[in-house]
Amino acid sequence: MLYLVATPIGNLEDISFRALNTLFLVNTILAEDSRKTYNLLKHFQKPGLKIPEIISFYEENESQRIPEAISRLKAGQDLALVTNAGTPAISDPGFKLVRECRKQGIAVTSLPGAFAPAVALSASGLPTDKFLFLGFPSPKSNSRQKLFQNVQKACQLVPATIIFFESPHRLRKSLSDLQKIFGDIEVVLARELTKMFEEYQRKKISALLEQFSLKEPKGEFIVLFNPKEQE
Q: Do the bridges between strand 79-82 and strand 28-31 make them parallel or antiparallel, or are there none, so unpaired?
């Protein structure tokens, strides 16, 4: 069995009992960052519990690791896949391994847990009945604008709250591109979710751009907006 195990996006106490039991019981853990995963397990390790073998499994080596993982699973091992935070295979490595397991008839199950877009959406104050998650937009401005144009067209047919991730050094550029396509709309910015300095802001793009011209943005951001609410 391949277990997809969600890990905390900030607060370590958000991990589930089932996730911990699984991680300590499997033969091998495939981890985006083996050191981070080891430290997580060490934090929760109890006497008599042994930390399983941890193998690195990240975007750059995913294709090379998949045959080894499949071989271990076919030999009868149970494997767990974790990423640095949140649910594996969602804007993180994993879907190619899952796809190969399905092709090979290997059982796959996903343990529910932390999922940053859902956390941000539920606390954003924006409509939650329909949403579109874009992951990380392209680092290229032309591609980002084309993406936002397509999203604008899609939302005319199916109104939804839009969610995407952005890094601090690209946030201003992405907001500027968003403004070019949607105008000076209100967006919600979420950062440091579940941590001590968790923060939500709801402002017009122009106000945020002015704010970040005075103080550089820090931390990983989730951007949310709903075009229908701007009408």
A: parallel
Domain 117-230 classified CATH 2.160.10.10? no
Q: Which residues are within 8 A (CB) of 89 and not within 5 positions of it... i.e. 6 or more apart? A: 4, 81, 95, 97, 98
Q: CB–CB of 23/52 below 8 Å?
A: yes
pLDDT of residue 228: 86
**Both structure tokens of 42:** 């060490």
CATH fit for domain 2-114, picks 2.40.400.10, 3.30.2290.10, 3.40.50.150, 3.40.1010.10: 3.40.1010.10
pLDDT the model gives residue 231: 61
The pTM score is 0.92
Question: What mean pLDDT value characterizes the chain?
Answer: 96
Nearest to 89 by CA among 100, 79, 81: 81
